[in-house]
Amino acid sequence: MTAAPAVATAPQSVAFFSRLRNPLLAVLFPGAVLVIWHFATYGQKFTLIPPPSDVGVALWDLAFGGINDDAYSRTLHIHLLASLSRVYGGFAIALAVALPLGLLIGRIALVRQVLDPTLQVLRPIPVTAWLPLAMIMFGLGPRSAFFLVCLGAFYPILINTIFGVRTVDARLFEAASMLGCTGTAQFFRVVLPASLPAIFTGLRLGLGFAWVVIVVGEMTGVQTGLGAIIMEARQLSRTEIVICGMIVIGVAGFISDRLVMLIGKRLLRWSPNFA
Amino acid sequence: MPDTANPIVELLGVSKQFELQGQRIDALRDAHLRVKKGEFVCLIGASGCGKSTLLRIVAGFEAPTRGKALMWSMPITGPGPERGMVFQDYGLFPWLTVRGNIGFGPAARGRPAAEVRDTVERFITLVGLQRFADAYPHQLSGGMKQRVAIARVLANDAEIVLMDEPFGALDAMTRERLQDELLEIWQRTGLTVLFVTHSIEEAIFLGDRIVVMSPGPGRIETEIAVELPRPRAVVAADFNDLRRDLSQRLHSHHSRKAA
Asked: What is the pTM assigned to this prediction?
């Protein structure tokens, strides 16, 4: 805030603070929330929400053990791995179906006429509504979880792929055809690269949704996973474990999104919107 | 077979009508045009005179409603690499570098990679973009983009280059430089150019022949052979005489239309 007078006296410290400015601003709000949370809950006799320090201890115990030595101690890696495999597995299946389907719907009128109305009607049905049916079709356990996560990631990828294919600049088709690239060759040389930024936005949103629906996906009777321990700890009134699960999902989802963005920046260097 | 006596491109009574909101628009009516190999022909006229439609019919993007469009006496049935188009908005592939854009045609037509590479280097040098060979279109200025667009049709063995107001979006300095460069390439390679413009000066500076078109319905009004020696100076007296003459012809069409 008061950087101006410091410029004259100590330019080095100014550089130091300007580099720290963004991270500092980013932790300002959560820091404030933590403080309020602490004073609202710490030392209170009948509070349903545990103070942040309890959550911190529980998180440490969940990850490394040695404190509570109960059923949750040192189990974080098992649950995290289980959820990761479902998120990325479900996402991969969604990608494998939604990407080719989106390309076909976007490019071929007949496919669009046959499939698009059905898909548009199915789209507003929330993933939660699919839960009972998924458990009947795929049984209790991880297969239902895969299905639900896959469903969550499916539509963002599909919709954005269709959008990308449908909005390729007509000029580029003219340019390609006058250069001797016609017919199906245009698909790989023009349509696919031109719609890559939109497809990529779909992937990013899809992966985000996969994380969003992981808790619902793990309400299907699976024993492991971050969603599973959240639901289980809720029944045992272990609210600190519930909050631990929420924090881990948030952090894992954030890191996974950052990784996708890094890949995108590299792949889409040519696009002024990504570079 | 290509024959120098035959025109490279010929339009015989070409008309084009569009349907626009239930109304029939005469974009081009009964156009006759012969372009000889090696000629630089400019099409000039106010907007709506059908000059772009004519060019797009030669490119093969539009089919004539009536009449025949021929290249080497064969009907034009669609776009093809022997008729390279340079668009005002460049139409470069944003995901390809300068190299990739220039090599797009040869690569798409299945030329061996080594040959494509050689061709690309040759035409990058021709348009002087060696330093920007690996840049993407969004990193280039308008003048550089248009150089790439020209190089990519030349690299693809275009026999005739169709240019749709290619320098219209550029600043005056860049436009003059590109006009000079285009003339130099044209003279060096024996290319044929069909060039759409709305600038009288540009048409006189570049063209062997100027085809004057007028709107409502779009049609060819007259043709003028430009016999000024090259290089042409825009300040020369005979240049100015021609400019005045052309300006009057274009203007008279407006007043006739208004009347």
From this structure: 0.86
